[in-house]
């Protein structure tokens, strides 16, 4: 099964290029792994998922991706960097750009650029979808703080939801630095998140601050650039999206990389409630669901029992249903062993609360609001978005 990726704005395009690079490298390395048959199956599955094999001999595979930005600079560079790798490329006609960006204004992206170019962008996605024998889902990548990724990205997601009502849509979002360079980043983030909440099947967030800390503290990088940060994000994303065995049978790779069970189950009172209450009142990070992905040596003997501890989950959730484990015996991205955790938990509560709080303070003094109202986003629209996110915050706070 295949995934169509839509890269939007500077951030989405730059991280998207790193992601395809990791996937292409990892997939090629797998071919020489032993046992050979296993490596070959992994390679074939990964290629079908992310690349179109070119019909004519001699050319490299092209990514199942659409590149969108409202200015040409980043797209031109992204396409050139991919081609320079000599291992993969972007399709010749799979990008859409204009002359001028959205100026860090969500309303400009969502109300002007999005609707104006809906048809052209939709056609590009449709062409990629039609090239897939079996479509597993659509992955969009963007930042929430700028104007194009956030505004056009939200608009595109809304259109994708209309055009592909039964297709799984996963939004990968990059969260701005807390002390970010965009003054209205919290407005743009609030507007993006509250809208995507309605259209998306799953939202996967990478916080720039958290990834920056990984670069500084774990990797000892001195002068950290976006490229360093993006490599870490791409590594994490790749380890989620590359082939893995999702069940107990190891005969075949799971066909659908997006078959994650993201649904929150119906509440029922679990037995762990009384014992776990004390821990959770101390600010414990309670989870709704966790997905653990293990890759490399010894994956079948790794002890993952700790993830079954009911104390990790909210009381009305049976712990055995709240954790899924995927495994692949092949090393990932040259790491002998790796483990990745995708967690639907309270970990985003603090940054979300902080972001909504900052946006609310600015809104209370009506700062920069005219820049949004002039593109047709009213104060009422803002209030609806705040209400939506306050509800999300409250639901997660009282898990
Ligand atoms: N991790 C990471 N963050 C980025 C990158 N580029 C930009 N950002 C973050 O993204 C936000 C700005 O959004 P951009 O993606 O530059 O904006 P855009 O979508 O191109 O929108 P406009 O330029 O306003 O049209 C800020 O929070 C930046 O910190 C990148 O390559 N990697
Ligand atoms: Mg830009």
Keyword list:
three-stranded mixed β-sheet, globular, binds guanosine-5'-triphosphate, alpha/beta, binds magnesium ion, Rossmann fold, 399 residues, 14 helices
How would you portray this structure in words?
The chain is of the alpha/beta class. The chain has a domain at 2-241: Rossmann fold (3-Layer(aba) Sandwich). 46% of the residues lie in helices and 17% in strands. The chain has helices at residues 9-30, 36-50, 72-85, 106-116, 118-130, 148-163, 185-199, 208-218, 226-241, 273-281, 319-322, 349-364, 370-373, 379-397; strands spanning 2-8, 51-52, 62-63, 65-69, 89-90, 95-97, 135-143, 168-175, 202-207, 287-296, 323-328, 337-345. Helix 1 (9-30) packs parallel to helix 3 (72-85) and helix 7 packs across helix 12. The two termini are 35 Å apart. Residues 260-282 have low confidence and may be disordered. Guanosine-5'-triphosphate (GTP) binds at residues 9-11, 14-15, 69-70, 101-104, 143, 145-149, 174, 176-177, 180, 182, 185, 208, 226, 229-230.
User: How big a fraction of the residues is strand?
Assistant: 15-25%
Strand count: 12
Please tell me the overall pLDDT.
90
Shape: globular
Query: Can you summarize the main beta sheet?
Result: 6 strands, parallel
Per CATH, what is the topology of the domain at 2-241? Rossmann fold
State the fourth-level CATH superfamily of the domain at 2-241.
Tubulin/FtsZ, GTPase domain
- Which secondary-structure class do the elements indicate? alpha/beta
Q: What is the CATH top level name of the domain at 2-241? A: Alpha Beta
**CA-based gyration radius:** 21 Å
The CATH architecture of the domain at 2-241 comes to 3-Layer(aba) Sandwich
Order of helices and strands: EHHEEEHEEHHEHEHEHHHEHEEHHH
Bound molecules: guanosine-5'-triphosphate, magnesium ion
Instruction: Please report the distance between the alpha carbons of the first and last residues.
Output: 35 Å
Count of helical stretches: 14
Considering DSSP H and I runs of 4 or more, what fraction of the residues is helical? 40-55%
